[in-house]
Amino acid sequence: MKIKQKLFRGATGVLLASALLLSACGSSSKSSTTSTTVSKSPASTVDGILGLGRPVVLGHAAGENVAPHSTMYGFAESVKAGVDVLDLDIQRTKDGVLVVQHDDNTKRTTESDLKISDLTYDQLHQLDNGYWFAASCANTCTGKPDSDYIFRGIRTGKVAPPAGYTADDFAVPKFAEVAERWPDYVINIEIKGKGADAFITAELLAKEIAQLNRTKSVVVTSFDDTVVEKFHALAPDVAMSPGLDALTKYVLGNIPIPMWEKILQVPPVYEGTPVFTPDYVQKTKAAGYVNWIWPNGDGEDEAGYLALFQQGANGINASNPAAGVAALHQYMTK
In 10 A of CB 95, how many CB atoms? Predict the structure, then answer.
């Protein structure tokens, strides 16, 4: 997801979660191709997803707990697991290419420790984006036996890829690759960074979404409200989620959020303080908002996801997509 978190203070001085957003990630620059079976999304637009009459499952950062973070392999596995919406983060390379990556550097997922903004896309695309995914821990971690890093070396050709996949599926992908490979899937996008630098990313993303004919099939957000506002000015027809300031004012002061950013993405709990509470659910649903809940690494299993659906979540951004889908099926059949 993975997620950089912040705090805001309530009038009573109690710390609440400011992480009220989603997160959240071959040896050449050519596009990757696989023979992986692609499922079909139940709806290809945001309005269609919101009109399904049931909660939905998002695959957080390509299912980061069960597949390498922000890889085409992870997105494909999320689709095969049956998610309704794909979820990703956007960074910008030195040569202005939008790539799917959560951090502003490559340290957490690859064999190198480099700044994304210092690399061209071709340089970034060479790296092994499955390098630190271990079978014995959720997401990415170091200090495990070499044998635990089950996808390490696929990107560089040292290890054969799983059936139906290629080495390119374990690289850092372009945003356009995800959008083009799964044209029928809604994509939940977080613009990383803040201020003027993130404005540039927002401008590029708005242009790319229009070129890809994705205006009605993406949800866009940022922690920085000025970036949210900038993007909305550039692409007013794109659905959005509010930034930190707008959510803070709504939670603490009941200041309404505009309906163009009605999809609220919050964690259930932060540092022991409940955020996704019955009162919050009642308030948001009465106002017509939609709650997509981001577990933020806690309760990332079928039981945890089921509990969130039972509490009123309209969507869960699941780091374990198959468990999320199983929880949804269980919820819908009760």
Answer: 11
pLDDT at 236 over 70: yes
Asked whether the predicted pLDDT for residue 54 surpasses 80, the reply is yes
Q: What confidence score (pLDDT) does residue 29 get?
A: 34
Amino acid at residue number 43 = A
CA 23 – CA 223 distance, rounded (Å) = 9
The CATH T-level fold of domain 7-103+175-333 is TIM Barrel (3.20.20)
- Residue 244, SS3 per DSSP: helix
pLDDT band, residue 21 (cuts 50/70/90): very low
Sign of the dihedral through C-alpha 262, 265, 270, 275 = positive
SS3 93: coil
- CB of 323 within 8 A of CB of 296? no
Say what the pTM is. Answer: 0.89
- Element (H or E) spanning 15, and its range? strand 15-17
